[in-house]
Each structure stands twice: as structure tokens, then as C-alpha cells.
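Full entry
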Amino acid sequence: MSLKIHGQRKLKTLTKSDVRPTTGRVREALFNIWRAEIPGCRFLDLCTGFGTMGAEALVRGAHWVVGVEQSAAQCQVIQTNWEQVGPGRFSVYRGTLPNVLLDLAQTEAPFDRVYCDPPYASGLYVPILAQIQALHLLNPGGCVACEHQGRQSPGPQRGWDLYDQRNYGSCGLSFYRLED
């Protein structure tokens, strides 16, 4: 199986995987919303899967992309996919969230845009947002987009401004920036 990104580039996937790739409709919507901010940005893709969102960011001009995935096999696929579209402009971390965020704070931060797409029922939204805030992973003016199931948004979070929500069928996006 393969996935297509901006410009009809094909990405590799694993034949047997429980990864739920972000739909083309949601990818296109997110990158249209962020179109002015992606060129030259530092982009963090959490729960990277096969690297589709990070690959989109690279193709659309992100300066540096970091991905986090817990599966070793998927990390290899991400490396292959990102090397194809953005050689030398990325790094991939294998680990679990929110634990790996401490490593990122010490080696990769800060970021301008963060995409967070954990398994919907994982309960990871709140701890991830809390760690992003506590570890100062965002540049001033940066923002986080959380993909979630339909209208089941993570909702308001302490210290965050939930400034936009969009629904795309069975999937939704919630946009956060740090409160002043």
C-alpha cells in the first residue's frame, strides 16, 4: 500500500499495521490553514505513523521536521519517506509519548507547528499538551493541531487557548496556542 501527498508523491507504508493515516481531506485542510506558516518552520509530528504529515510539511517548505513514533518498523518507513522528499531536513525519534518530549526539549526544541495525532482513545492529548507547555517546546506564536475523532475534541486545556475547531466527517482538528 502507498499514500499520496502534495504533488502526487507516493509514500511507503507497511502491509500489516494498525496505523490510521490522516485522510487526504484532513491533510489538505490543515496545510491550507497553515500554508503561510509552513515555509521555513520547525515542524513536530507526534505519533508519526508512516510520516505522511511530516512529509507534507517537508514538501511544502518546512525547514526542519521531527517525527516521534514508537514502532521501529514504522521509524524505518518514515526515514525512507522523508529522505525521498526532504533529504537532510529531518530527524526521527523512536519512543513513547509523552516521555520522549523531554529528549526533544533538550535536543530539538523549539517548534513553530506541532501536529498531534495519537490513537483517539489513548488519553494522550492532555499529557502531551501539558508537556509541550511545561518543556517550552513551542516558539512564541507557535501552535498545536490535535487530530481527534469527530466532535470529540480534547476541549479546553489549562494554559492553552483553544482558538479554532474544524470537523471533517469522522475526524476533527482542534487548534491550540499558549495563553499569554
Notes: The chain is about 25% helix and 35% strand. Residues 72-85 form the longest helix (14 residues). The helical segments are 24-33, 52-59, 72-85, 101-107, 125-134. The radius of gyration is 15 Å.
